């Protein structure tokens, strides 16, 4: 089978990550790279799909252009920076129906996927806690909410198999980034009787990426910053029994890119399809409205 030919729009850090990752996948070749004149890519009929790794504020314009031409797309998170724009993309997609994968990378993280299989072993689910922080990088086009929350929300939705029924949000606003924005965010996502609490932002001196699930008979901790043991399971009456579950060691970005290639070839729906991306944006939008209303409980 011939290699899948891809084009990459955006040559920042994530764009470079895609270029490096694609070199490990013999089935694909990123043949074209551009940052601005993306419309010219339509000249090259050999292109099978396009990766959009540009700043979030540009996603809607770029994605809408290629949806009009039924081009398969991999769009980095967040899908858009507003719910109405996300809905517009969804309506356009229903007319052209190409493959669209939204880059919620933890859906392709082997350690997180292994965590999901272990949840039945810790009894009845009690709570979910997550934390994603770092000192920077501070974006000029979106707040920390739109930059970081797609990870937390998509993981929560993946674990629970549903969208939250309600949300609350609070934020710390500063001008450290050069403009006043939500630099640290605290979220509560309600999934029926289970609540998920998250702390995210770019003002922490310590980089964290942790997701903890607690049940009546134990807990599982996913720590993506740990170089070797990303999963820890606690059990026993005092949670004193510690084990380190195994998981595949493949790179999440490679898994995500392979999913995109497979979906293009087989014309199937991705795990993180456009509808999933739209739903994540809907939840982020609700959290932002709650923040603006001082933590108001927002039903979805």
From TrEMBL:
**Annotated Gfo/Idh/MocA-like oxidoreductase N-terminal domain residues:** 34-104
Any one GO molecular-function label of the UniProt entry? nucleotide binding
TM annotation in the entry: none
Q: Per its UniProt record, what Pfam families does this chain match?
A: GFO_IDH_MocA, GFO_IDH_MocA_C
Q: Which Gene3D superfamilies match?
A: Dihydrodipicolinate Reductase, domain 2, NAD(P)-binding Rossmann-like Domain
Q: SUPFAM superfamilies annotated for this entry?
A: Glyceraldehyde-3-phosphate dehydrogenase-like, C-terminal domain, NAD(P)-binding Rossmann-fold domains
Name the domain of life this protein comes from. Bacteria
Domain Gfo/Idh/MocA-like oxidoreductase C-terminal, first and last residues per copy: 144-297
State the InterPro entries in the record. Answer: Gfo/Idh/MocA-like_OxRdtase_C, Gfo/Idh/MocA-like_OxRdtase_N, Gfo/Idh/MocA_Oxidoreductases, NAD(P)-bd_dom_sf
The record ties this protein, via PANTHER family, to: BILIVERDIN REDUCTASE A, GFO_IDH_MOCA-LIKE OXIDOREDUCTASE N-TERMINAL DOMAIN-CONTAINING PROTEIN
- Protein name, per record: Gfo/Idh/MocA-like oxidoreductase N-terminal domain-containing protein
Higher taxonomy: Bacteria, Candidatus Gottesmaniibacteriota
């Amino acid at each position: 089978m011939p290699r899948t030919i891809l084009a990459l729009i955006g040559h920042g850090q994530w764009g470079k990550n895609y270029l490096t990752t694609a070199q490990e996948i013999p089935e694909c070749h990123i043949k074209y790279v551009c940052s601005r004149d993306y419309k010219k890519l339509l000249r090259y009929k050999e292109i099978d799909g396009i990766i959009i790794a540009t700043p979030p504020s540009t996603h809607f314009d770029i994605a809408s252009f290629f949806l009009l031409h039924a081009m398969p797309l991999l769009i980095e998170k967040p899908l858009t920076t507003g719910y109405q724009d996300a809905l517009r993309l969804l309506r356009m997609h229903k007319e052209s129906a190409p493959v669209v994968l939204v880059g919620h990378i933890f859906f392709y993280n082997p350690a997180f996927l292994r965590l999901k299989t272990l949840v039945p072993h810790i009894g009845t689910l009690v709570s979910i806690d997550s934390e994603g922080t770092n000192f920077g990088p501070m974006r000029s086009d979106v707040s920390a909410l739109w930059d970081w929350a797609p990870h937390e929300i998509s993981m929560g939705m993946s674990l629970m198999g549903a969208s939250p029924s309600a949300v609350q949000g609070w934020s710390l606003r500063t001008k450290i980034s050069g403009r006043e924005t939500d630099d640290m965010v605290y979220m509560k996502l309600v999934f029926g009787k289970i609540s998920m609490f998250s702390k995210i932002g770019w003002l922490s001196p310590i980089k964290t990426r942790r997701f903890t699930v607690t049940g009546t008979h134990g807990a599982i901790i996913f720590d993506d910053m740990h170089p070797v043991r990303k999963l820890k399971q606690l059990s026993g009456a005092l949670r004193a029994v510690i084990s380190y579950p195994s998981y595949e060691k493949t790179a999440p970005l490679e898994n995500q890119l392979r999913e995109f290639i497979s979906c293009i070839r087989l014309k199937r729906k991705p795990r993180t399809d456009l509808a999933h991306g739209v739903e994540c944006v809907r939840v982020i939008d609700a959290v932002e409205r709650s923040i603006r209303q001082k933590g108001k409980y927002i039903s979805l």
